[in-house]
Amino acid sequence: MVDNYYKSEGYESRKSVGFLIRRASHMLTSEIEAIFAERDVTFVQWVILMNLRDGLADTSSGLCNNIRYDSGALTRVIDQLEERKLISRNRSDADRRVVSLALTSEGKKTVESLLPLVVEKYNLWFEDFTKDEADTLIKLLMKFINSITIHSKPKGA
To answer: Which residues of 89-101 are buried (b: 16+ CB within 10 A; e: fewer)?
Structure first.
């Protein structure tokens, strides 16, 4: 285990893991948004559809937590997706306050039809990586996210 990887003396923000991840995220988002610029589905709509497809969330609050999107703005996007019959809202019988979201068959077709465009872009970015390097990057990012999750819990929780 690394002990105090960063030190105040000689610290450079351009080598900060936060800076690097944020920069990569902004660059990635900008490039992927361009793919959706001339499509019937926006990037945010596609992210929501993918979250539902992969079971990462099934409620508005779950989506807000996953994609860090404003709840009011998210409601408008969900309304649009429902109007287009890409998702459905289903009120829980056990708790009427809970509204679950699900992909419709049209939503599944839509997300699957756009997936190759995103996969192609990701593969382009991994062009200079070996398979092991790509696997390692993904594994380390997942480990880092898990570490943040563990250390973000309140003491005694």
So the answer is: eeeeeeeeeeeeb
Element (H, E) at 149: helix 131-152
Contacts of 35 (CB under 8 A, 6+ apart): 43, 114, 117, 118, 121
CATH class of 15-112: mainly alpha
Q: What are the φ and ψ backbone dihedral angles of 80, each rounded to 5 degrees?
A: -65, -45
Give the start-to-end residue ranges of the domains of the chain: 15-112, 126-157
The string of pLDDT tens digits covering residues 63-94 is: 998 888 888 889 999 999 999 999 999 887 78
